[in-house]
Amino acid sequence: MKNKIFALGVVALIVGGVFAVFNLQLEETTVSARYDMLACEDCYYMTIEKSKDGHLDGETIIPTSNTINIEQLIDSIAITRDTLCLRGKPYRFNWNIFGINPDGKRFEVIEKVSLLDCSNF
After folding, report:
1. Spatial separation of the C-alpha atoms in residues 4 and 106, rounded to whole Å
2. Which run of H or of E encompasses 108?
3. pLDDT digit string (tens) for 88-118?
4. Helix (H) or strand (E) holding 103
5. pTM for the whole thing?
6. Which of 22, 36, 65, 108 has CA 20 to 30 A from 3's CA?
7. Which residues is 35 bridged to in the sheet?
8. Interior CA angle at 100 toward 54 and 88, to 5°?
9. Contact 57/49 with Cβ under 8 angstroms?
């Protein structure tokens, strides 16, 4: 009985560790991004044109947010193809287990900021 409880505890610890690793985020940054119109349902891939620190320039991101409705944000610029200026945190680990193409980095959007904030970099 002790062995089963110990094994269950170890499994729970491993699952908790994997969950924590998948949710690690890098430092907050501001990016200028343009929506990529792809032929898939609920695909909100964006290409970063410029980022504040430059390490995300040209990367494909998959925006996520608990505070902003990403679907409405994308719908507001989908036809005009305008650029969005977003403040947020990229996730540290972005494993593409299922081989989804294009591969993108998850990006937690905190807020949409003025385009003037993106014109400084």
Report:
1. 37
2. strand 105-113
3. 999 888 776 766 667 888 999 999 999 888 8
4. none
5. 0.75
6. 22
7. 46
8. 35
9. yes
Q: How far apart are CA 59 and CA 110, in angstroms?
A: 19
How many whole angstroms separate alpha carbon 27 and alpha carbon 92? 9
Could you report the average pLDDT of every consecutive run of 10 residues in the chain (121 residues)? 78 72 76 87 88 91 92 89 93 74 87 88 76
DSSP structural state of residue 66: S
Structure tokens at 46: 């964006």
Distance between CA 74 and CA 23 in Å, rounded? 24
Q: In whole angstroms, what is the distance from residue 45 CA to residue 59 CA?
A: 10
Nearest to 48 by CA among 40, 39, 56, 37: 56
**Residue 105's closest CA among 21, 38, 26?**
26
At 95, is the secondary structure helix, strand, or coil?
A: coil
Backbone angles phi, psi at 111, to 5 degrees: -165, 155
